[in-house]
What we know:
One of its GO terms (biological process) is iron coordination entity transport. By secondary structure, the chain is α/β, with parallel strands linked by helices. It has two domains: 197 residues, Nitrogenase molybdenum iron protein domain (Rossmann fold); 136 residues, Rossmann fold (3-Layer(aba) Sandwich). Helix content is 31%, strand content 17%. It has a five-stranded parallel beta sheet with strand order 7-6-5-8-9. The chain has a five-stranded mixed beta sheet with strand order 12-11-10-13-14. β10 and β11 form a beta hairpin. α7 packs antiparallel against α8 and α8 packs parallel to α13. The radius of gyration is 22 Å and the shape is globular.
Amino acid sequence: MLAPFRRRRSDALRGATTVAAALALTAGLAACSGDSSDDAATGGGSGDGSWPRTVSSLAVENHHLDCTDQMDISTCATEDVEIPEQPQRIVSTAVGLTGSLLAVDAPVVATGGATTGSTADNDEGFFNQWADEARDKGVESLWQLSPDLEKIVTADPDLILVAANGQDTAVPGLEKIQAIGVPVVVLDYVNMDWKDLTTEIGEMTGREADAAARIEEYDERVSEVKASIEDPEQPVSLVLPSADKSGNANYMTAESPQGRVAADLGWELTVPGDDVARTDGPFAGRTDVRQVTAENQDKAFTGHTVLAVDSGIGEDPAEYLKNMPILADTYAVQNDRIFAMPPELFRMDYYSAMAMLNRIDELFVK
């Protein structure tokens, strides 16, 4: 595999000519520049280090990630993006990135949202685990999974974050977003541990100390929970039943964000092998999750303790699994060892990692 190339975005991209081009793309929109002193006041003053600084961003060509294998993020090229000064007005086009921005107290002023009405978000499309934080900080919800260039321009950002993949990606429209004329960074939150993502966002926003503090808080909470609980019967399965109630389910491995929390607690995770799990299509080569179709669930459901993550199925996920006829003879069903976990765990960040620890503490306290 060829090593990913690096390229530095031209300074001209951030020039006045490019800004004018971006505004032309959104014809009829009023000028979006505001009082710079007001903008600076919104960002706080707890930055670390010197500016400008250069960060790595996944490269995009022809509206797709520039990868030799679109299914393998490690084959994707990267490019250098220069951030000239500490950001004061950040727009997150991806709801999956916004929690990490809030966790490090970065000045995020607006975000794309998730589809409203699910169990994992509220009417604004914010994820439940950080919705209150976003409201307290005055974060504006720009859209629900349908990026709108005009709304990005109106938010007057000095840094824009884009998800490389997932339902909230804005990669197909990246060229137009880059034409706004401010730094744009493309991040792969789907395949990153939340700690790594928090650290990376801390570095690009000058909030390294805040990022380190959140990770330290998590590590301390892990120690507290390990001391306060009786470890559940091992091995443990982390199961996310399909929201469409097809009987399919995803099993999280120790490389998934949820699985890493279990591993931090010293638990043994069991996952289905290649003879049971899907290895085709979008699941080919994936190491964080194994999907099992309905007819094979009895072979995959081997955990002596099962944590069932609510995927928006509209009912208690533990009860749903207990009532699947194919699972009736499994150990976890026979011994009442299936426990419901909240929907906030579907997409992991600092807030949901702490929520997972709190739920485990509640379930297995001595």
